[in-house]
Amino acid sequence: MKTNDVIFQTVAKVVFFMIIFFAVHLFFAGHYYPGGGFVGGLMTSGALVLLLLAFDLKTVRRSFPVDFKWLISLGLLFSTGTAAGSLIFNVPFFTHAYDYFQLPLFGKTSLHTAMLFDLGVYLVVIGVTMTIIQTIGESE
Amino acid sequence: MSLLHWAILAPFLMAILVPLFRKNAAAIHTGWFVLILPVLLFGTFLRYLPVTKENGSVTQTASWIPSLGINFTAYVDGLSLLFALLITGIGALVVFYSIYYLSKEKENLGHFYVYLLLFMGAMLGVVLSDNMIMLYMFWEFTSISSFLLIAYWYDRDRSRYGAMKSMLITVFGGLMMLGGFLVLSLMGNTFSIRELVSQAPALNEHPLFLLAMILVLLGAFTKSAQFPFYIWLPDAMEAPTPVSAYLHSATMVKAGIYLVARFSPIFAFSGYWFWIVGAVGLFTMVWASFNAVKQIDLKGILAFSTVSQLGLIMSLLGIGAASLHYDSLDDNMFTAAVIAAIFHLINHATFKGSLFMVVGIIDHETGTRDVRKLGGLMSIMPVTFTLSVIGAFSMAGLPPFNGFLSKEMFFLSMIQLMELNLFHIETWAVLFPVLAWIGSVFTFIYSMIIVFKVFTGKFQPEKLEKKPHEAPVGMLISPIILASLVVVFGLFPNLLSYSLIQPAAAAIVPSIIPAGEQLDVHISFWHGITAELLMTIGVVSVGILLYKFMPKWLRVYDYFPGKVTLNQFYNSGLYAAERGSNAITNAYMTGFIRSYLVYIFAFFIAVLGFTMWAKDAFRYDASTAAPIGLYEAVLIGTLLIATVTILMAKSRLTSIIALGAVGYTVSLFFVIFRAPDLALTQLVIETVSTALFLLCFYHLPKLSRHEEKRRFQAGNALIAIGVGVMVTLLGISAHSSKFFDSINEYYIENTYDKAGGENMVNVILVDFRGFDTLFEIAVLSVAALGIYGLIKLRLEKGGETNENE
Predict the structure, then answer these.
(1) A114 is in which domain, residue-wise?
(2) CATH of domain B592-747
(3) In degrees to the nearest 10, what's the CA dihedral of B480, B483, B484, B489?
(4) Which residue does chain B place closest to A72, by CA atoms?
(5) Mean pLDDT by groups of 10 residues along chain B of 805 residues
(6) Cβ neighbours of B762 in A, within 8 Å
């Protein structure tokens, strides 16, 4: 049976961006408000899954020609790199550093190496979720 | 992080760059880029020579996990510097040689140099680490890189077999060694080798001393291919020849020697050490040299010869332990054994390195390494012939090469044992020089085989795959350098005496050297007519006779039964282990996830229930519990309805949706209990996993659960109820009994001050307990790649069978 899901597809296109923006917000808010790399990553994958359901694997792959396995390794590289990077500054493994800066547009902002670590988590979570879903989805 | 740390890590960093060279500069052999690094490192390490020459040392520490005493401490003294110079020096020559040995068109150079650099870094880490945990980590890295290099031509059965064998044996030893390290750290309450050395006398009295010693020695013996673990080394010869020259003769197999030398100050006072190290070493030396003679593959001969020479060095280190029992340096004759060990270590690296490269050249230019097919190459490959004469004569212990000097020192140490009156050696002492002599006779014979079977005799071009000719100049340079070192060290051994040998030997027996003094290292050619010279003359004359009449006595080898060899033992052991574990696994692996859940949950109920009963752990204390409000009641009602729906549903789609409802209700609980992070995460997880379920939905068989028999379901119900009861009891008990102060005060106080964050949950995730997160994402990644591999593999196999049909 051929289903007509025009409404679903149209809504998905719009909602996708809302979810993505919310996910990015969650990611950046992480250190001060509820959120963080893990849930941000999951939310991003959630948005992608929505597209998957509305369209199909091929369409999503064409719109996002990303090999999600690469995201996994990139994320691990970020996380371990941040953790190991502290060794260069003669402090124990996994020592984070942070400071507050006065940036144009943002005002007083704190910059934190934990953010880099969290970025790694974010990427790994997207990579893992999407790799699993794509692989299982493709094996039909 | 200091220069020293960067020097250790440099090969690893370089390994990351190799694929770039391979991709962007494919016209240039990748080896040229790689070559720069060992040369630079060699120069870097040379700069420490003035320090170690005075028996000084350099220590640089970078904190890694200071709270556990695990730090990246790099420590340079005479011993580690000697090894570092060997690793980088021979490394540079081997890389240079490999440029001509491996063709850039045919071979996968990227893999080769990545593995080689991994090895180089790991090996530097082994010899420069003071922390035992770091040492262990790098130690296993050498095993892994050796595995990868042996399996470099992974399409060959023998390569994979050899790689597997070396991995199993050396990793077994490595794990034993880790056990030894942990026992040592328990005894001395530190992971630092230097600190352990400083409390050596106290450790000697410790009840765990012998256990620690045997475990550490197992690590050393497996790595250095001592009897009975040597069987992996001959099979490791499937690796490309530059690798054999580098890992399996000059450096990696000497890691065991290094370990024995490094831990000598801790263990060597004990009589057990003297006996185990000395006897195992000497027996290995004789046994391997005896077996080398019957080999027909040139690399096989060299492999057994390496085992034998390692045994020689090992036995010298064992005998050197006797020196600790003397009070003054002047009449201490056993320091000579330690000095001989170090000197022979250097000599072996030079002559065996050059011999391996020579064999590589022969293999490369004729297409075979079989001694029966080779012959008469002297006039065709004159340079190679000269090099092999130098290398082999040095190995046989002939003057004027360096092997002669260290062999004489070896004999001397063995003879001196007869004057020792320690460790109840009196009756056995005479065996040592006799065995040493017998081993040396066989060493002489196989050295002669390498030279004369290959280069003299009848030239048989019809048996060779290629038309032989002299090797290109580039390939000859590295062995020429090594062979000239053989001659130079032979003629002027005292170049090394106080620059390298004395500092290294002093690091092995530090306790007997008074401050500011040095060991007396003077190596000279001529001592007059001494017992050891007579022994050498005996070796040469008997060796020549036996070589001449070899066909007559080779039958001796037939008397050794082929069925009870160590290799046979290894193969059948491996086979039995595989069969056994297969049988056990198949007995309970049904392939149905419900069976596995039954195992897991039944075990869970049994263990928890037993513990709770045995420890009388159940507590009920409702005084701190909050009252149940309307919201909670409604949510619990929803939860119950959804759960029952899952059980009753006729279609799987309904089950999936009901399961989602359970998850969403739980996340509402988190909202009520003011845990927004948890609620958010649970909500998203629930969404994504429902989507995942829908994807899998297509693959599942149509509701098979009703086909099952009734009997099963009763059991399942029992287990399900049991788990529910157990978890409830556990939750109530955990809430009612408080044995410790809660850690949340610590987080509340420190989240802003120490980590600069306001969301405690996130700060815990990325900072306070960042290790957990790091490992979790690592596990997630492994899981994702595992699923990817499983499904893709299944698809490809299915595709193949379709094609066949």
Answers:
(1) 6-138
(2) 1.20.120
(3) 160
(4) B781
(5) 89 90 82 92 92 86 84 91 94 93 84 93 94 94 93 90 93 95 92 90 88 94 91 90 88 92 89 90 92 89 93 91 73 82 92 92 87 83 91 89 89 83 72 90 91 84 79 89 91 86 87 77 76 86 86 78 79 92 89 86 93 86 82 92 87 86 93 88 88 74 53 78 92 83 82 79 84 92 92 64 38
(6) 30-31, 35-36, 118
Cross-chain residue pair B781–A124, CB shorter than 8 Å: yes
B688 touches chain A (CB under 8 A): yes
- Asked whether the beta carbons of residue B794 and residue A118 sit closer than 8 angstroms, the reply is no
Residue A113 lies in a domain: yes
User: Looking at the complex, does the CB of residue B600 fall below 8 Å from at least one CB of chain A?
Assistant: no
Closest Cα to residue B355, out of B403, B395, B311? B395
Cβ of residue B685 closer than 8 Å to a chain A Cβ:
yes
CB-based contacts of B118, cutoff 8 Å, min separation 6: B11, B12, B15, B141, B144, B145, B148
Instruction: Measure CB to CB from residue A46 to each of B684, B695, B763 and give the nearest one.
Output: B684
**Chain A residues within an 8 Å CB radius of B691:** 46, 49, 52-53, 133
What is d(CA B580, CA B790) in angstroms, rounded to the nearest whole number?
24
CA-based nearest residue to B435, from B405, B409, B408, B411: B411
Q: Which of B64, B676, B699 sits opposite A92 (nearest CB)?
A: B64
B793 touches chain A (CB under 8 A): no
First and final CA of chain A: distance in angstroms?
18
With contact defined as beta carbons under 8 Å apart, do B314 and B288 qualify? Answer: no
Residues of chain A with Cβ-Cβ distance to B70 below 8 Å are none
Q: Which of B676, B696, B794 sits opposite A34 (nearest CB)?
A: B676
Give the pLDDT score at B797: 54
Q: Which residue has the tokens 């969403």?
A: B664
Are the C-beta atoms of B297 and B244 separated by less than 8 Å? no
CB-based contacts of B328-331 (< 8 A; 24+ apart in sequence): B329/B512, B329/B513, B329/B514, B329/B517, B329/B519, B329/B520
Q: Taken in order B731, B736, B742, B748, is the CA torsion positive or negative? A: positive
Residue B524 corresponds to which tokens in the numbers above?
A: 């000279």
Pairing label, strands A98-103, A107-112: antiparallel
Asked whether residue A1 is assigned to any structural domain, the reply reads no
What's the number of domains chain A is made of?
1
CA distance B64 to chain A (A): 5
Question: Token pair 């003057």 is at which residue?
Answer: B399
pTM over 0.80: yes
